[in-house]
Amino acid sequence: xxxxxxxxxxxxxxxxxxxxxxxxxxxxxxxxxxxxxxxxxxxxxxxxxxxxxxxxxxxxxxxxxxxxxxxxxxxxxxxxxxxxxxxxxxxxxxxxxxxxxxxxxxxxxxxxxxxxxxxxxxxxxxxxxxxxxxxxxxxxxxxxxxxxxxxxxxxxxxxxxxxxxxxxxxxxxxxxxxxxxxxxxxxxxxxxxxxxxxxxxxxxxxxxxxxxxxxxxxxxxxxxxxxxxxxxxxxxxxxxxxxxxxxxxxxxxxxxxxxxxxxxxxxxxxxxxxxxxxxxxxxxxxxxxxxxxxxxxxxxxxxxxx
Length: 306
Known about the structure:
Helix 11 runs antiparallel to helix 14 (about 275-305). Strands 1-2 form a two-stranded antiparallel sheet. Strands 3-4 form a two-stranded antiparallel sheet. It is built from 14 helices and four strands. The longest helix is centred in the first third of the chain and has 34 residues, at about 75-110. Helices cover about 70% and strands about 5% of the residues.
C-alpha cells in the first residue's frame, strides 16, 4: 500500500547490491553467455549455426561439443594454458618482490612526499599502453639504454645460461623480454593496493612489538606482513588476472616459444575463422580466472571477519 501512495523509497542495501549486479549482468554475464553459446555451435560457412532449429513443428536443440573435446585432447591448447598461467604467476611474483618495498617506502615516508610518490607510480598511465610496451623494443637493443648496460656487465651471458634468452646478443623476443615488459606494465597495479593497505596500518603495533623485544625484522614479518595480507592478495590478483589473457606484450616482446592464450584466441578468431573454437578457449580461460577470484573473495571475507 505504501508503494501505491508514493511513500515507497528504495532501500540503500538494495541499491548498493542491485546497481553492481545489474552492471555485471549486462557487461559480463550476457557477453559470457553469448560466447558460451558460440562455443556450443559450429561454423556454417561464414556464420555460426543456431543451437535451436524449428522444422515441421519440432524444436531441436543441437549442442556441438567438438571444440571442448579438441581443447582437452590437443596438447597445444593445454600447453598454452600452462604457459599463460606460468608467466602470469612469475610476473605477479616479481611485481610483489619489487612493489612491496616501494609501497612500504611510500607508506612510511613523510606525508608531504606521499602525493608526489603516488603521482610517480601513476604517471605511466598518462602514456599510451601500446607506446610504453613498444618502447622496450628500442631499450633492449644492443645499443639501447637497457640493453647496453646488460651487455657491458655480462648479465646477458647469465640470462643465456639460465635459458631466459636464446643467445647473449639477443634480449628481444625471449622469456626475459616478455616478463620484463609485463612486470613494468603491471607493477603499479601491485603498488597501489599495497600502499593503500600499509598506509592505514596502526604504527603503534610496531612500537608495541619493539617494546616487547622484537627486532625491526621480526616486527616486519610478524606484524607488517600479516596485516598487509589483503593488499598482497588484491595486488597479486590485479596482476595475475590480466596477465593470463595478455596479448599485446607477448606479441611485441615475446618470442615463438612464449605462445600464450591471448595469441591463440586471436589466431582462432581472425586467422582460422573458427569462432566456436575461439569461444571455447575464452570460456575455459574465464573459468581458469574465476578460481583465483574465488580465492581472493574468500580471503577478503576472512580478513573482514578477522
